[in-house]
Each structure stands twice: as structure tokens, then as C-alpha cells.
Amino acid sequence: RERERAREPQGAEKPLQPAFGSPGNCVVPVAIKYNKIFVDAFWNSRDQSFPRHLFSLMTAWATVCDVWYMDPQYLQEGESSTAFAARVKEMIANQARLESVPWDGYLKYFRPRPEYKLARQKIYEQTLLSRFGGLEVLRAKVQQEKEEKERQERLDSQDSLDELPDGSRASRSDSAARRRTRSASATM
Question: At what angle do helices 136-159 and 114-131 cross, to 10 degrees?
Fold first, then answer.
């Protein structure tokens, strides 16, 4: 490696490597689905350590899996690299008869974004409303409870701040302490 660097003239530009989703690049999807007959090849890091998982793999009779080699895929005209990756992922999931989900395996380590949770909740709500058409009353009640809770939170936040004589604001405990000090000095 050092010899290669020594031979390159200083300031020489190296050719850029093409990106994954560049036109003309070929991706050959391979779908692999593990069969749990002898051992579960999937490592769930929350359930077991890697050495324990490796031990179970190495002591199993066999690791059985189905492998499908699919046709090469190319970036289509006007397709973004993200859309291309999603298309290839869908092909792999369909071939292996797996459910394609919009997240990766790291979801067990991180909380999903609130926007994603809200979107999933709305989809679930629409499913319930379409199946059980009489839920409009329940929906209105939930909305009313939500508005009441927000109103109460606003009132609590306003009550927690009292205005001082000089126009600034202080917490309720600060104001109460000042009132006690004033009343104690007035009685003396």
C-alpha cells in the first residue's frame, strides 16, 4: 500500500468510484430464507450474546436455508437510488415469501419516530372505523378528551408562573415565598 501511494504523483486526482444507484450499475438480488428445522440462524442480540449464538450455530446438525438467485436489476430511467433499493427489497421479500417492512433490524434498539407511530395509528384507526362503522361516537369522545387534556395542560402551565410586581415571572413557589416574607416583615 505504501508503494502505491509513493508512486502516485502528489495532487493527482483519483477517479471517483460509482455510487450504488448509478445508471449502468448492476445489482443481482439474492433471497435467503433460513429454515428453523435444526437451528434458528437469526441472531437476536437482545435475547442472547453473539458467542452463545455462534455456539448454537456450530453445535447444530445443520443450518438449512433456501437460496434464490434472481435476475440482475438495473436502475430504471428517472428512478432514485432509494426507490431502486426499495424495489429490489420488495423483490427479495416476495421471492422468499417474507413480509416487507419499512424499517431495518435496528428498530429493537431505537424508538420509532413519532411521525411514523402517528401514521400507523391513523391507519389502524381507519381500519377500525371501516370495519365497525359505529365508532364515530367513540372517536368524538376521544377527541374531546384530548382537547380537555391539552386545555388543562395550558392552564397548569399558566398557573405555574405568577407575575411579579416588576413585570417578570416567577414560579408559584417563588411567589409564595415572597408573599410569606412580605407578610412576616409587615407584622414586625
Answer: 150
Residue 183 scores a pLDDT above 70: no
Q: Is residue 72 a contact partner of residue 26, using CB atoms and an 8 Å limit? A: yes
At 161, the amino acid letter reads: L
Amino acid identity, position 16: L
Within the chain, what is the greatest distance between any pair of CA atoms?
A: 94
Give the distance, in angstroms, between the CA of residue 40 and the centroid of all CA atoms in the same chain: 25
In this predicted model, what pLDDT tens digit does every residue of 115-174 receive, in sequence order?
Answer: 888 888 888 877 877 777 656 666 777 788 889 888 888 887 776 555 555 555 555 555
Q: What whole-number distance in Å separates Cα of residue 94 and Cα of residue 88?
A: 10
**Contacting residues for 72 by C-beta, under 8 A, at least 6 apart:** 26, 27, 28
Is 28:70 a contact under the CB 8 Å cutoff? yes
**Residue 35 CA to chain centroid, in angstroms?**
28
pLDDT value of position 5:
47
Q: Which long-range contacts (CB under 8 A, 24 or more apart) does 119-122 make?
A: none
